[in-house]
């Protein structure tokens, strides 16, 4: 399992880059449109590590539109084709360890590349990095990858003066957390008639789940989590009526 150090309270890290819809040409761009655009731009600029990071994160999620899944598969093929033709210039272990000490972008690229490798080989280096207040987004993706590979090693994650000690093989990856799956199911039904708000809330919810790692979203937290995220996006869009309808539907569902 995992624990916070004595004297420190467990923290629920807030998203540092909450996903909202973006305005383009007067029309709201939903979460999937925005992510697809970011992946397309990364591929155009030949920023294949950034594209791979975005694709990997989305492919782990249990829910996505069929057309978006097809786009991700196509992007994945393009990324893999690039990797095969550019194997000679792939990052060495030394380069990746150095990149973990770099800025946010370099840390994210390093984590993405390491996530495709056997992390047991790098467990000591990763443990050292996690203890030194790494970029929260990069750390969340690394912890999720460690959990996905069930690395049987003890890590301590330091962030803003708080410390979490955990065994990676005892952490549940975001996509397999019961609380996340329940929250997404509630969200699907509550905002079925408003796909734009639904995808905004979905992106926000998933991001929050990543940022809580190594802590998991528990099943009993699902209702509160989904209501908080629906309220946040409805407040931003000044749509209180939709929030009240969703709240009533969720509370009715949970009361059954």
> How much beta, percentage-wise?
5-15%
Helix/strand structural class: mainly alpha
Query: Radius of gyration over alpha carbons?
Result: 19 Å
Mean pLDDT figure: 83
Q: What topology, given as strand order, has the largest sheet?
A: 1-5-4
User: Biggest sheet: strands, sense, closure?
Assistant: 3 strands, antiparallel
Helical fraction: 55-70%
The tally of helices reads 11
Q: How do the helices and strands follow one another from N- to C-terminus?
A: EEEHHHHHHHEEHHHH
Gross geometry: globular
The parts where pLDDT drops under 50 for at least 5 residues are: 1-28
Q: How many β-strands, per DSSP?
A: 5
In whole angstroms, the N-to-C terminal distance is 32 Å
Report on this model:
With 256 residues, the protein is mainly alpha-helical. The chain has 11 helices and 5 strands, in the order E-E-E-H-H-H-H-H-H-H-E-E-H-H-H-H. It has helices spanning 31-44, 48-59, 66-85, 93-100, 104-114, 123-130, 136-148, 178-190, 195-212, 222-236, 240-255, and strands spanning 2-4, 22-24, 27-29, 154-159, 162-167. Helix 4 (93-100) crosses helix 5 (104-114) and helix 5 runs parallel beside helix 7 (136-148).
Identify the notable features of this structure and list them briefly.
single chain; 256 residues; mainly alpha; 3-stranded antiparallel beta sheet; two-stranded antiparallel ribbon; 5 strands; disordered N terminus
């Amino acid at each position: 399992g995992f624990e916070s150090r004595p004297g420190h309270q467990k923290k629920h890290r807030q998203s540092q880059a909450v996903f909202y819809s973006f305005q383009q040409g007067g029309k709201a761009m939903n979460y999937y449109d925005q992510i697809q655009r970011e992946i397309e731009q990364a591929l155009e600029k030949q920023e294949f590590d950034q594209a791979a990071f975005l694709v990997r994160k989305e492919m782990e999620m249990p829910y996505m539109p069929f057309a978006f899944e097809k786009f991700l598969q196509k992007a994945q093929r393009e990324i893999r084709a690039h990797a095969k033709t550019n194997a000679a210039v792939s990052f060495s272990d030394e380069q990746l360890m150095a990149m973990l000490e770099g800025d946010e972008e370099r840390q994210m690229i390093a984590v993405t590349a390491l996530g495709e490798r056997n992390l047991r080989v790098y467990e000591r280096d990763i443990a050292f990095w996690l203890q030194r207040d790494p970029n929260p987004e990069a750390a969340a993706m690394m912890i999720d990858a460690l959990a996905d590979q069930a690395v049987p090693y003890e890590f301590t994650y330091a962030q803003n003066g708080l410390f979490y000690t955990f065994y990676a093989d005892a952490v549940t990856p975001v996509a397999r957390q019961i609380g996340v799956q329940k929250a997404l199911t509630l969200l699907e039904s509550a905002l079925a008639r408003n796909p734009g708000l639904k995808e905004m809330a979905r992106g926000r919810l998933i991001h929050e789940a990543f940022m809580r790692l190594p802590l998991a979203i528990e099943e009993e937290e699902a209702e509160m989590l989904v209501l908080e995220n629906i309220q946040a996006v409805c407040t931003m869009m000044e749509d209180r009526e939709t929030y009240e309808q969703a709240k009533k539907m969720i509370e009715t569902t949970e009361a059954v």
